[in-house]
Each structure stands twice: as C-alpha cells, then as structure tokens.
TrEMBL record:
PANTHER family: ARAC-FAMILY TRANSCRIPTIONAL REGULATOR (PTHR43280), HTH-TYPE TRANSCRIPTIONAL REGULATOR EXSA (PTHR43280:SF2). PROSITE patterns: HTH_ARAC_FAMILY_2 (PS01124). One of its GO terms (molecular function) is sequence-specific DNA binding. InterPro entries: Homeodomain-like_sf, HTH_AraC. This is Transcriptional regulator, AraC family. It comes from Ruminococcus albus 8. Keywords: DNA-binding, Transcription, Transcription regulation.
C-alpha cells in the first residue's frame, strides 16, 4: 500500500456538501470524527464520531455535515503487489460504515500523517507497515468475533430479536433493520446468523409459528384469527406455512395438543 495523500482531523463547516460521483483514484480509509451524513453509492448513512469507511477506488460517495463542524481523518493510497491478497484475507466489507470503539485507528492515522510529511528516509516503508496495522485494527471491529469480546452490535441484535419475538405479527423488513443499524443487508444477515445460528428471516418465521402454536393451544381464537395475529392476513398462506413448520394443519395441531 502506497499512501499519496493523508489528513488528520481535517475540519469543514457544518454545511459541508462534497459530492464525488466518480469517487477518487485509489482506495481510501475515511474515519469520520463528527456527526455526518455519508452517501455510498445510492445509500446514505447517518453516522456518529468514530465511524470508518474503507472506500474502493472510483466508488461514488458524498460527504455532508450534519448540524455541527465536520471532521475526518483519512488516507488515500494505491495498492501494490500482494495487497489485494492481504486485504481479501481480512474480510473487511468495503463502502459500508464500521463503528470503532476506541481512538486507536485515529491515533495511528495521526502517526502516519506525521511520518509521511517528515524528512524520514524510510517514511514510505514505515507508513506501509502502519497501514497494515491499521487494517488489522479495523478487522477486529468489522469482524467482532475475532476480538473474543462482545460485538459492538450485540446489544442491538439482542434488542431486535426481542422485538421480533415480542411482536411476531409486525411487518419485519430486513433491509430496513439493516439500514437502522447502518449496515448492509449482507453484513447484518452475517452478524445475525453468527450470533444466533439462524438467519433472521427464519427466526421471524419461527417466532410467528411458535406464537401460533401458543394461541392455538391456549385460546379460543379461530384459526383465521390466529393467522392474523401472527402477521398472515391470508389464511391459506398461513396454513401452508404452518403445515410445513409443524407437520400438521393448524386445526389438527390444536386438536392434538389441548
């Protein structure tokens, strides 16, 4: 990795609007140090201090202030031999927000800036090694299972799962859940399955079917009413889903379990 432009705590006015429809040449580590609204492709993210993006070369993005002075740290760099293999091995998702829980990356970028603009004869090699260390630090936040501690998303995942089981009939929308967590759909789905061993869509179905079983065995509600309370306005669809899940129809399940 060969850095060619760097900045630390670069400041702009609260009304900053910087649109880069063609991105920039080379990859970029962009660490937001204030509230901001960041566009990546067609998606926009409302982010807080210490949110990082690894942006691909020429990827369209937009930087916007959000009611306060905009501040960021950044490194623009070109890839050299074997860099793709190194970056791919880390599994860090590009062009999506990664929430950091310490200032370590910011301090490392500061060191890179100081060395890059120094007279140090080995500055290119030193910055190159520091950048690899930065990516290892990013990996520990982007892939929290590597840290041996709790994921920064774990509390949110637990809250979402509780809401799903507390209100199975709600119109749960995976893209909306992911957006609310400032994650891509694929990243959210991966985190959810890693945490609970089941895809979120299947967990939603499980919550509805288990609730249906409870209602069928403990209330006098009709099967149609149970269907509606479980988020299925179309009873025939509900009946097919339940039959597949419980291996018997709703009416037969009620008869055999009361």
């Amino acid at each position: 990795m060969k850095a060619y432009m760097l900045g630390w705590h670069s400041k702009h006015s609260a009304d900053l609007y910087k649109d880069r429809p063609n991105g920039i040449h080379g990859m970029q580590i962009l660490l937001i140090r204030s509230k901001a609204r960041i566009g990546m492709g067609s998606k926009f993210y409302n982010v807080d201090d210490n949110t990082l993006f690894v942006i691909e070369s020429c990827y369209p993005h937009t930087l916007c202030g959000d009611g306060e002075e905009y501040v960021d740290d950044w490194i623009r760099f070109d890839l050299e031999d074997e860099d793709n293999e190194f970056l791919n091995s880390l599994g860090i998702e590009h062009n999506v927000p990664i929430k950091l829980d310490t200032d370590t990356v910011s301090e490392m970028i500061k060191m890179c800036v100081e060395i890059f603009y120094s007279e140090n004869s080995e500055k290119d090699a030193t910055v190159r090694y520091l950048m690899k260390a930065i990516f290892m630090q990013i990996k520990s936040c982007a892939n929290p299972e590597d840290r041996g501690g709790r994921s920064q998303y774990e509390n949110e995942l637990e809250s979402i799962r509780k809401q799903i089981y507390d209100d199975p009939s709600a119109n749960w929308n995976i893209p909306q859940i992911a957006q609310d967590m400032n994650l891509s759909v694929s990243h959210f789905q991966r985190l959810y399955k890693q945490r609970y061993g089941i895809p979120c869509t299947k967990d939603i179905l499980t919550s509805r079917m288990e609730y249906a079983k409870q209602l069928l065995t403990t209330t006098e509600l009709s099967a149609v009413e149970v269907s509606e309370k479980c988020g299925y306005p179309d009873y025939s669809h509900f009946s097919k889903v339940f039959q597949k899940y419980a291996c018997e129809s709703p009416s037969k399940y009620r008869k055999n379990n009361r």
